[in-house]
## 1
Amino acid sequence: MSTTTIANSDVELNEEGFFVHPEQWTEDMVPELARREGIDELTDAHWQVIRFMRSEYLAKGMGPTVRILGKTSGVSIKELYQLFSKGPAKTAAKIAGIPKPRGCI
Amino acid sequence: MSDAIKKVSIIISKGSLEGIYPGLIMANGARAEGIEANLFFTFFGLDAIHKARNEHIKLATVGNPGLHFATMAGGLPGVSTVMTYYMNHKMEKLDIPPIPEFIEMIADTGAGLYGCKASVDLFGLEKNDFIDQVQDIITVGEFYEKAAGGQIIFT
């Protein structure tokens, strides 16, 4: 666990870089968090996925899997992997300030 | 993290439900972690990518001690069908997709899907017999070329 400054606020991240306290996250941290994941330019589709992850987490207490994302976020699985090449659910969860989705599918 | 796995090539050699799913789950899971993945289907594993057969993959109820019931019972007509139905139902509840959908999804993640040439020739099949997501029918030598620099997993 370590404290890092993102968009002028101190946040606590775990060893893998996920938010320990999702409530510390704000939308203006997104560009910097995305850059840390190698995404320099955020498109509308990126935002759509990030906001979807966040709202699913707030509603259900956990982030969706890639399959659910592909079915319900409005972005196809093919496109998800183009947007987040290091793994869509994992990367988008990091940027959306929510815990790593756990699931084998 | 310099020793993290960056690439896997997974061989699926069996045509039963329990022979196909583990390789698919590993390939899909690899892509979800940002790991490059190839799937190579050989021998009866080819059924998983066969257009007419991949919707009818069955659980092996004979010669499968893990099921914990008598081999003779497993061989009765209809038992494999019923057990397959039961297993599919359980997996659906856990959000595990049916094999055809799962393979399509894995192709969409950017994983490579390949058939084994020796097996395709052995069974008298051709590229047209397989789903469109199959990129190519390749030799074992070509498989090793594609697998270079990564881990190989045989299932």
## 2
Amino acid sequence: MTATTASRSTQRLNSPAEPSEQESTAATGCPAAPGAPQPSGRKRQLGHVINTRTARNWGIGAVCLVVPIALMWAFDKSQIGQLTLGLGSGALIAAIALGVVLTYKGSGVVNFSNGAVAIFSAYIFHGLRGSFDNGNGKLYMPPLPNPLALVEGTWNSFVTNKSDWVDLPNLPTKIDIDFGNGRMPMVTAFLVALVYAALLGLIFHFLIFRPLRHAPPLAKVVTSVGLFLLLINVITLRFTGTFKPVAEPDLGKKTLKPFGNDIVIQREQLIAAGLVVFVTAVLTVVFKRTRFGLATRAAAENEKGAVVLGFSPEFLAGANWVLSTVVAGTFGILVSAITGLDPITLPFLIIPALGAALLGSFNSFWITSFAGLGIGMIQALTKTFTAKSWFPREWIPQSGLERALPFFIIIIVLFVRGRSLPQRGAVSAGRLPFAPKPNKILWPTVLLSAGALVTVFAFGYDWRQASINTLVGAALALSLVVITGYVGQISLAQAALAGVAGFAMSKFFQSWLPFPLAPLAGALVAAGFGLLIALPALRVRGVNLAVVTLAAALAIEELVLKNAKLAGRSGVLAVDPPRINGLDFGPGNTNLRVFEIKAFKDPNVPPSAWFGVLCLVVVVLLAVMVANVRRSGTGRRFLAVRSNERAAAAAGVSVAGTKLLAFGLSAFIAGIGGAMSGYRFGSVAPSNFGALASITLLAFAYLGGISSVTGAVVAGMIGVNALAFTLLDKRTGIDLKYTVILGAVGLIFTAIQNPEGIAGALRLGTGQFRRKRHLELVEIGGPG
Amino acid sequence: MSLLNTFGMSVTFGGLRAVDEIDFEVPKGSLVGLIGPNGAGKTTLIDGLTGFVPTSGRMVFDGHEIGSLAAHKRAALGLGRTWQSLELFDELSVEENLQVAAERQSAKAFLLDLVHPQRSRDRSGVDFALDVLGIRDLATKMPNEISQGQRKLVSAARALAARPKLVCMDEPAAGLDTRESQELGARLGDIIDAGTSVLLVDHDMGLVLNVCDYIYVIEFGSKIAEGTPAEIKNNPKVIEAYLGQSAGATVGARP
């Protein structure tokens, strides 16, 4: 504790803490309203403000509830019944959101993985109840590292013939549970699943977020995003990757018609909502009336406050984490009969949950909970509207509107409120990854390009394919180097922006524009969308921006990429191969010879080697461009904004303009990457470019090294189906399906141990001796 | 001829008036001092002038009404500032810190940056700032590799690299010893000679009384006195409010 405060005061001198919202509003060029609340005045009037604000919130809540229901009562009573159909998923959203608020109060972490925790618990529960093994209950084990795999891998890498490989025992994936009738009793299974949830909470806090408590927001966001990826990939690996309806637990299925036949209400929906309201009440009482709650509230303001009350801040944080995961897990299990099991859509309920938590200012359990229920109900209502005959389903995807809704709620909340997440007492000024100035770019470029050419021409088709995937991944990662590495803005929408370019190129440009122009035009459209996403970035930063961009990624996926007018009816659109001088440079044209040269090995198996050359040229151009940005005045302004927005504004840098420029440039680069991806597959599909793809992209870009061009190249190499894992697959037999799991684990380790990423570790490894020596000299008062 | 004028400038935080109806003037080519006890509103006044807190009243800088301009636009007009907490860009070398302030952005510069970043740019501002503060040997260092005193100089150099018409310096002498403080006084003279006016906020009475042409004294956000150093030294209100009886004697005794 004392060390925290001490180091904070010394850090202040080196790297000033984030500017407060009020100061930065001025810095970004939006003059604050004259009547805006100011920090010093706020203290004085705190009690008064809280009372009026609470009353106002309850008032607004009541109006929001009563007016629509009254209107429905007057015009179309059946809609009231429809409204209640959203209570079940609303209860899950509310529970996930309550968990988010709890961890934020307890440790200042916004946990993007809480939805995944809820669903993971539900899967464990249903595993024990035998839903996946024909009624035979199994305890599913998490994929733990097996020390024997090292022996096996090392041995097998010396054996050329795959059939001679040894196969040592693997860790069990599931353990039989037999309580007589083949499965665990309901209550026991429920409790065991909650033990899993509680263990997750403990692990998350003590092994992951506690070491990160002084890290910058970026590291915490990517870590919780990494946990999200890890959990959903574990679910997909251990259980199933597709939707599965389940019949239990039964909350009391019954159809109620309390007001005549017009209003049909499902009783289990009401019960789910009632349970979440009960939990909210309990949490409120605990936080208002017990010393534990008081100490947590005190710690959120100032960690010393908790110590004075006799609580260790660590205990408080850990306890809140466990509460959070258990609340989320409980409702994940309880409403699973209503929502079904799905490893993708349900974890993404974190987006509406974050919207609900934002509405509650990450503080009020009541507002958060009712907002969650409300979002669930509005989504259910949207569903009935989109089914109506007048709904323009040509223009707006039916299911998309429902899923994109939270984005609009989040945008409205952030714009109306301006400031959303309260600042915590223990603000730390952790450093972002270092963005080195590339001095020599010629030789690394030549060597890496030569390596790529050798792999593309001289190795087999699978290596060729892996190289091309590497190049596409590197292009996408470069877009994150610009926006997150250089300017420090967390964007979880980069893959969605890439998708916009791919779809725009396919739908609108490729028919009448020749090769380099069609992808460029698509990338410009993506840049336009990037500027749109940047608008909230002018108001919010850090974690808030991550929330906005993630919601935007989902909205783009649902409303643009799956839009019948803007994309294909089924979502997928064909992409014509690029033609230069009438020659087909597409991956499918293996007959292409330039200078009479074709691939030396597997020349007739796609992808064509010359498509690889084309990708290489594009990536080299992009990489040199991004390196040039860092070496120029533009890059200096980018880093100045990342480092200190106030000081940048005082130095004459337009912070707003710089952020817009960076978002535009980054989206443009992502767009080129999207077009490359389209050429590579011959088509663009929403699933390759959605919110999940955006999250995965950030994870690998951070793991590779978010702040340098080298890092982007490394990110490309370790990406899905790219060089690194192809090598692993071929040498050790580690299946490619583990890529994302290993990537997510690597990401979490990177965030804790080595925020500079793999590229940074390589750079530091070579430069360490020199640097160390220099630091010693500085310490003894040598140079300087 | 005056470079900066304020008319009834106020800064309000909730119910608190941190700066209350202050009128002051900085003539071109002059070094104006601003002193006051802790919490008098000195830094808030600079924040208001340079666009980091909202103000009421009028502010005219070099013929422009600047009250409604964003901070970076005021900087572009030639109103620079330094920070008490320095606020250097830690990820950039000393020279790059200065270049950020010296270079102007434009669409053409951005496009050129993408293809030809190493082209020669106008370095006059950076060279001027490095030379006038005598820190050319620090140019390639990173901010975490130099001493606190050197960081202070870099912070001032960054403000000067934009060749501002007026630079507001927030406590540049805090933490310096007497010799370093005198050295700073001499540098301030060089800066004035090079055509930049200075608004100096500091606690070091010796420095302020020695180098300033004109001094304003504020307390609780209000101006309580103004005048030449000699007038301020003998102003009974100032002695009572800020310097205190004994402090007044000490200051008087100092060269």
## 3
Amino acid sequence: MIYVYAITDAMEVHDGPSGLDGGDVQAIEHEGIAGVFSTHDELEVSSDPELLWAHERVVDHLMDHGAVLPLRFGSVLRDPEALRVILDEDGARFRLLLSRVRGCVELAVRVGLTSSEPGTLAGGRDYMRERLAARQREEDAADRVLAPLRPLARATAHRPVQAGNTTVSESYLVPRGAVEPFAAEVRALQAQNPGLSISCTGPWGPYSFVDGGGR
Amino acid sequence: MSPHPRRTSPGPESRPPPRDSRPPSARLQKDIALIDLLDRLLDGGVVLAGDITLAVADVDLVYVGLRALVSSVAAAERQGVPLPR
């Protein structure tokens, strides 16, 4: 079987990092785009950070050479021929997505929410209502804090806050040349909002900007 | 905490350093980078037609652990107490 990392228009994958489980990274090209993969007799995919970083390192290297559509972690196909068929059948969609992310990287920004716990339980219903309202106020505040970042990005993806999550998270598709100004703006926002905990990581592959309508 | 790039210069070596005696803030940065990595690799990215995406084990536990850590560190910072280690 093959483990697939990305679709790219970069035709240069040699001298890059090895893939999952030390696998050799190869590419199969079809009409100007390539699928990048490694071949494995057996592969156990877990959330081991080392495996996740191995996937991202391959994507990261490709991004130095062209536009890249990172695949979801754990994408496995039977063989390179199956990948070639997909490149053929979905080529138009991949080219459109590649044109959208070309020249850009993804940056992730997280704003820590102050998890407010009401001290008294007047009643289950009031408690829940107050909790939800407080939660909404926190999210609105985080939303306002992040507003100055959006004009610096070509696109923004808001990640819905999930239960148990203590941060608001947004992804930004930023032209490579704008990464430093973006980071400077994040630092300025942190300075202006000392009560919030703001983090910024990246550059990542454009994982949050390759949702091109269905599979 | 301060915003920080996952790495500062292009290069294939973006692997986080192994567990070591770095200060808690550096560990926290590494853990936040790991959460952002999980969010992207497991929830984003292209899904191929005909893909037989492998089930990834243990993800929920990892998430819960990391989020609890981030939450507790944020709380500790608000109260101005040293980070537990």
## 4
Amino acid sequence: MDSVEPQIAEWRAHVAGAPAVDGRDLDELEDHLRDQIAELRAAGLAADEAFLVAVKRMGDVDALSREFAREHSGRLWKQLMLGDASEPARREVGWVDAVAFALAAAVAVQVARVAAGFPDEEPTWLFRNAGLLVLPFLAAYFARRRQLDPRRWLLAAAPFAVAALVVNLYPYREGSATEALVALHLPVALWFAVAYPYMGGALRSHERRMDFVRFTGEWFIYYVLIALGGGVLMALTALILDPAGVDVDRVAVWVLPSGAAAAVVVAAWLVESKQRVVENMAPVLTMLFTPLFAVMLVCAAVVYVATGLGGAFDRELLGVFDALLLVVLALVLYGISARDPSTSPGWMDGIQFVAVASALVLDVMVLGAMVARIGDLGFTPNRAAALGLNLVLLVNLAGAAWLSARFLARRSTLHRLERWQTTYLPVFAVWAAAVAVALPPLFGFD
Amino acid sequence: MRIDKDLIAASATPLVLAILAEGESYGYAILKRVRELSGGELEWTDGMLYPLLHRLLRLGYVTTEWRSSPEGRRRKYYAITDEGRAALAEQQRQWLTVTRALNGVWPGSVGLLPALGDARG
């Protein structure tokens, strides 16, 4: 068979060009090809004939690549549109769209800012509407990019319309806690509303949900990078203009809010089209921080259990713990989304389990402290929101811990764990929406 | 006879699971078995088997292991799991229902149902 070795190598290199086919798949396919060639030769074909027939039977590389992409959307996810011929043209449009929607978001924020007289005045309606000033443009960008039909456009717009009405018609009291909670939870709820156009309306698809998780993580990375770059730009501008006697603050007031709003859309566009640039970033960051967080969580759990400080959480500490648990959840979720589902459990999965289990212990303690506090002092909007968030987290972490223990014991598959998380995503969305919509009336807009 | 693409796609999962239920195997041997079982009538594009196997792996229906082949190459072997057997049983029920319905309306057709019944036994 030596005579066809170069051809086999060439074929392999050609197939390797398909983005969703990895090295081990290549080994498997090559093994198949060689078996086929051997059998054809045994039947009397010449080596090069056998090679041609075997390659033909293997199938068209483009079709094969698409089929692999369908199964391994995680690997492929750098080019979300399963590569078809119209891709280059659409990318051009995507660029124009992104700039248009980013500009629109920047202008919307600016109009609201001028109307509110910010920063001389700080009316609270500006803050509680912040998400509504930016995220509809992101949703519209995706609705256009995914070419939604008119019915789906309406469905995508509905949550934003409802949110705009609810947030602005509620009669909040001056400086009320519910209004602050709405300002905090509405952007989260609206982010989930962006998921609808992002997934092209396929809300039930667990694969698309996982794609949205990946998108969220990558978007965050891009946003932070853009913010860092923007910060450097602003600082240098300030240094350069200061000697010339220009009041930098007056420039910043225009540039900062608009830049922050436009970056939301620009970051999304970058994730969509430039995925390859940081494709290795997410797994690396997860690999780096999951063990560190695991160590930190174990220490925290041990310290709090041993010293009995568990009962004495005050409000600030509760907030910190909630943030910590959310970060852990994000790490775990992102770790799963970046993981190759076909490999068997490894040390990273062990570490992830440790992180989840310690987070679970901490969450139970936080909950205990919270229930005690509520028992003593009664419900307030803040306590109700914190209690709900911790319950939502508790159920998620308990499920994740249970499934990842079973996965480590090889009694379950990663698929189950992934499913648990993607099934759970709507719970977060519903919770955030409930705090924004149902909590204020429940507490009399206090 | 050319079998419809959709029909081939629909029958691929139960066929592969049933072949693996006979014993562990690897890609090329599975394809050979498919040809043998169908008398060469079911023509799959060879490469398409692998994404299917990977999907079964992700769903936990099969497990996999790299070992050396008799020729000394690295080869990926697949074996069915209990969950895979359960899925296969479910598929068999569905196919039986479909073929029973078809047999009911196809005058004079006898071949399909007994053959599937045998496969189950």
